[in-house]
Amino acid sequence: MADSPQHVAIIMDGNGRWARSRGLPRAAGHRSSMKVVRKIVEECVQRKLGYLTLFAFSSENWRRPPDEVGMLMNLFLDALDREVADLHRNQVRLSFIGDRDLLGAELARRMHNAEQLTAGNSGLRLFVAMAYGGRWDLTQACRSLAADVASGTLAAADIDETRVAERLALAGVPDPDLLIRTGGERRISNFLLWNLAYTELYFTDALWPEFSAAHLDEAFESFARRERRFGKISEQLAAKADA
Ligand code: IPE
Ligand code: IPE
Ligand code: MG
C-alpha cells in the first residue's frame, strides 16, 4: 500500500464540455473552474499536502481561438487579484512554471509579485503551470546545460540525471506521486514529461467544474491501493516493510 501522496499534480480538463452540456458558452466553464481551484487548494491545505501542481494553460493552448485565449488571460489576471491574499493567509507558497516570455507584461508582473509576497510561507507549495509544456521544460534545461558546456563551466561527460533535473522548472521538488486528470481523456498532453516518469496516474470522467472533495478522496483512495515498485519486485518491498 502506498503512503499518502506528498506531491499531487492535476490536469484540470473539461471546462468547455461542462459549459456546453449546460447550453452555456465555453467561457462560463472557465469562469466556473476558478471556484473549484479555490476549493481544491483549500482541501489540500487542510490535508497538509506538501506540493500541488496545477496545469492551467499549456504550450499548445495558444492554438485556441484568440477570443478564448484572451478570455483565459483576463481570468488569470482577475484570479491573481482576488485569490493571492487568501492564499497568503493560508501560508501557501505560490510559484509559476512555464514560458513567461509569452505572457503579457501585466500578468507576468502580478505573477512575480504573488511569488514574492508568498515566498516566505511554510505551508502548501502551490505551482501553477502557465504557458507550460513538458517539451518546453526539457528544451530550456538542455539550452541551459549547453550554455555551461560552451562556457567551459560544465563538462558534457558530467551531465547526468541529477544535473538535468536541476535545470527543470520543478528543480528541487519531489516528483509528483499522483497525477489526476479530470474530463475523461487518458493522456498527458505535454504536462510534466520528466517528472511524471514514476507517477501514479488517475483518470476520472468528472469534468473539472464539477470536481469535488469527494472526487479528490476517491483519487487518494485509489492511490493508497497502488503498489509502487519503481522497478523492483513485490517481495523486495515486503522485506523493506518488515525491516
Ligand atoms: C481545460 O478545459 C482548461 C484549459 C485547457 C485552459 P478545456 O477548455 O480543455 O475543456 P474541454 O476539454 O474543451 O471540455
Ligand atoms: C490540457 O488540456 C491542458 C490543461 C488542462 C491546461 P487540453 O484540453 O488542452 O488537452 P488536449 O489538447 O485535449 O490534449
Ligand atoms: Mg480540454
Which cofactors or ions or other ligands sit in this model?
3-methylbut-3-enyl trihydrogen diphosphate, magnesium ion
Question: Helix/strand-derived class?
Answer: alpha/beta
Rg over CA atoms: 19 Å
Q: Indicate the low-confidence ranges by residue numbers.
A: none
Q: Any guess at the CATH architecture?
A: 3-Layer(aba) Sandwich
Strand content: 5-15%
Estimated helix fraction: 40-55%
- CATH class annotation: Alpha Beta
Please report the number of helical segments. Answer: 8
The dominant shape is globular
Order of helices and strands: EHHEHEHEHHEEHH
How many structural domains does the protein architecture include?
1
Q: What would you give as the CATH superfamily?
A: Decaprenyl diphosphate synthase-like
For the largest beta-sheet, the strand count, sense and barrel status come to: 6 strands, parallel
Order of strands in the sheet with the most strands? 3-4-2-1-5-6
Briefly note the CATH topology name: Undecaprenyl pyrophosphate synthetase
Summed over residues and divided by their number, the pLDDT gives a mean of 97
